[in-house]
Amino acid sequence: MPKINLSNITLNYEDKGKGKVLLFLHGLGSSIKDWDFQVPFFSKNFRVITVDLRGHGDSVMKDNNFGVDYMVNDIKEFLDALKIDNVTFIGFSMGGAIAFQFAYSYPEKIDKMVIVNSGPDFNNMGEIGEDLLKKRTEFLKTKGLDPLAKEIAFNMFPESHQLNLRNEFEARCKKNNFDNYYQSFVTLMDWGMGNKIKDIEAETLVVASDMDYTPVAFKEEYVKNLQKASLKVIKNSRHGVVLDQPDAFNKALFTFLSHE
User: Fold this and answer.
1) Which pTM does this prediction carry?
2) Termini Cα distance of the chain
3) Which of 28, 102, 105, 185 could form a disulfide with 94 if both were Cys (CB 3.0 to 4.6 A apart)?
4) What per-residue confidence (pLDDT) applies to 138?
5) Could you tell me the residue ranges of all domains in the chain?
């Protein structure tokens, strides 16, 4: 896979297909492998780009800065380097935060936006967010990343027929540098859009799993604050919907991308 040298990072990415550009942004502790079931499907009709975000995968940082704003800057410089002026973002979990922030900061570059099991305010999720921040930081400090990777993988893919997905995600998460993962997590949990979400004009599809960490009602509430947004709920799915229900997800995404 190619790599591109930018001012503060060398980004690892994959670029396949031709047509309108789809940029897929993975979740916390993962990599472009989140999109293994999407790349072959969508690259038949679109130009599909996946990228390892700051502190993740095979991308290499040249500084020690973390947070959504830095990731947005990386992606802006990345798109400029590839001379891409118009793009649809598909952001899963942490990737959704980056998509939200990018759509607000650089609206002229956004065609459409897809938010997958994510939200616009990780710093204002109430008891769910506070509990997640407290438990995960304590877990990391006392037990380390490997046991956390095992627990997250099981929570995402607990069923017997999901064993391969579980093992692959656990292995992927364990590859992370501890400090990179920790800093990515705590800075993500400190990020939020607030009222700025109302200024986002891009047509948006929000995809929610019926068994995600945050309830469907959480997504329904913020969808109301977006100018042009619709919600699609995927049944029998947990947080990793792009992996545990790829056919249903791909169908919903393709339908959204195909209408003008």
Assistant:
1) 0.96
2) 32
3) 28
4) 93
5) 3-122+193-258
